[in-house]
Amino acid sequence: xxxxxxxxxxxxxxxxxxxxxxxxxxxxxxxxxxxxxxxxxxxxxxxxxxxxxxxxxxxxxxxxxxxxxxxxxxxxxxxxxxxxxxxxxxxxxxxxxxxxxxxxxxxxxxxxxxxxxxxxxxxxxxxxxxxxxxxxxxxxxxxxxxxxxxxxxxxxxxxxxxxxxxxxxxxxxxxxxxxxxxxxxxxxxxxxxxxxxxxxxxxxxxxxxxxxxxxxxxxxxxxxxxxxxxxxxxxxxxxxxxxxxxxxxxxxxxxxxxxxxxxxxxxxxxxxxxxxxxxxxxxxxxxxxxxxxxxxxxxxxxxxxxxxxxxxxxxxxxxxxxxxxxxxxxxxxxxxxxxxxxxxxxxxxxxxxxxxxxxxxxxxxxxxxxxxxxxxxxxxxxxxxxxxxxxxxxxxxxxxxxxxxxxxxxxxxxxxxxxxxxxxxxxxxxxxxxxxxxxxxxxxxxxxx
Length: 449
Hints:
By secondary structure, the protein is of the alpha/beta class. It has 16 helices and 17 strands. A 13-stranded parallel β-sheet has the order 5-6-7-8-9-10-11-12-13-14-15-16-17, with no helix packed on it. The protein has a two-stranded antiparallel ribbon with strand order 1-4. A two-stranded antiparallel ribbon has the order 2-3. Residues 1-47, 53-59 and 223-227 have low confidence and may be disordered. It is found in: Cytoplasm, Cytoskeleton, Microtubule organizing center, Centrosome. Residues 20-49 are annotated as: Disordered.
């Protein structure tokens, strides 16, 4: 990276976040002020604001003609700001280079509550440094307006970039760094310690993250009563493969206000980790442990302690869960609205019966690839769960058209039905379409269209 590209002029502004191999263009030709001195990556550039007028007479005439044709210039400032609010960060930086007016509008504080950067090649550490430096001009070293940072899929994000966020954004409420596998526990600890208002954290795909906790220094400074409390309510740790029960124990002890927790494909989590979770986090509404192959019926017994607070549960492909685990959930979690049990081959009609009779407000159910569920189970669903809107029966070998007709005759609000790889007739599918007019049917029967 060239140090020249980061030179700060009298009034700094990160004007562009260039895509790979891009350059500046003027009137269809490559500009001599092209900043793509580094090929194959994206860099944040710093420029002064555009001049108020152009000095060359020919250029002045051209700009006057263009100004007459530019109806957008007639819009008032508040309308321009409303338009700019829909632009991602890199496009907003480009707008700051158009003219002096756009420069001032593009840096309106109301537009900088969110920074959104995407792309595998972007030098996101440098971009964050440049952007936060500009946003800190009026309030030295602090971005008081910035509440959301989304840098998903930026593989070049490192601990240095997260440290910049932690130092400059004390009012941060939402951070998404999914797919940024170069960040570590230490950087995450810095963010949650220095951003006390952080409520939404997405570290999915960050394979080096094994825990969420305060730094030791932060724990010492805070009072013993609140020293371990983190205000995070939404936590997504999908594909954090190294997360173990002990790490989940630490997370639960620090993040006691959790309401949404996603642990998809955290393959080392067991029933013991769920036991720790239920001791501290009693307000969880949504929980996913899909593809956690060591979770069994004992884990379902622990989850059932959430009782009526639990509304969403995903246990897809947890092969150790049977009717016993479903009975625990159905007995205590009567207000469950969503259940994904796809691939839980130990579930039978008895489990579906108990679920249907106790969770009558169920709206979405996925029991695909459960070969022991038949038309009998569907009949229990149809006679008890009248509010059912989404039903997936993909690859259920024992399902026939008769079961589908019973569902369609009772669940008029059905909006999605998946019967791919099921042995159902065209007549049964037409019956469903006739009774559930808004239902989208996913199927593999070429005769039905």
